[in-house]
Amino acid sequence: MNILKRFNPAPGTADLWEYIKQPQEYRWLIVAVSCLPVIVILLWASSESRIAPLDRPNVTYITTLDENRSDEQILASNIENQRVQDERRAQIEAIEERKREMYRALGAASGMNVEAMEEQAAAERAREEAAREALRREVLENRVVPGAADAAVRGGDQ
To answer: How far is CA 53 from the centre of its chain?
Structure first.
């Protein structure tokens, strides 16, 4: 059985409208008295307000580094981190070179033109590096500080 047949609001709405349209002596008084409890409840609920004071935010600063470090300690830490990053880059490059050697051997064993493929790959790597460098220069020049790209190339403010 369809639920709309059992609980269809259309006939009830039509009956209510017909009843309201009929001229009766106390029609508007009955409507006003019927709406009064709803209006009183809504006014009471909307007028009640409780604003609690906001709690102060609990800010936690980075606590992994000593806040009393000297400039020399910071510089030594930065140099050490740069050395570690350079070692990682060198390891990754060695792995990539080993992969290229394996692909060269596979290509030579398969009878492919390895030299042409190497030239294409080198050209592709050069294009990617040029795009990265252009993006780096654009970010340094336009988003950080004007002229920063030239200072970065020169090695600082000289």
So the answer is: 31
Q: Between the CA of residue 61 and those of 5, 18, 49, 65, 66, what are the distances in Å? A: 64, 70, 35, 10, 11
pLDDT tens-digit map of 23-78: 888 888 888 898 899 999 999 888 877 778 888 888 877 677 787 888 899 899 99
- Whole-model pTM over 0.70: no
Residue-wise over 70-103: b if at least 16 C-beta within 10 A, else e?
eeeeeeeeeeeeeeeeeeeeeeeeeeeeeeeeee
What CA–CA distance (Å, rounded) separates 87 from 89?
5
| pLDDT tens for each residue of 63-108 | 777 878 888 998 999 999 999 999 999 999 999 999 989 988 998 8
Determine phi and psi for 58, rounding to 5 degrees: -95, 100
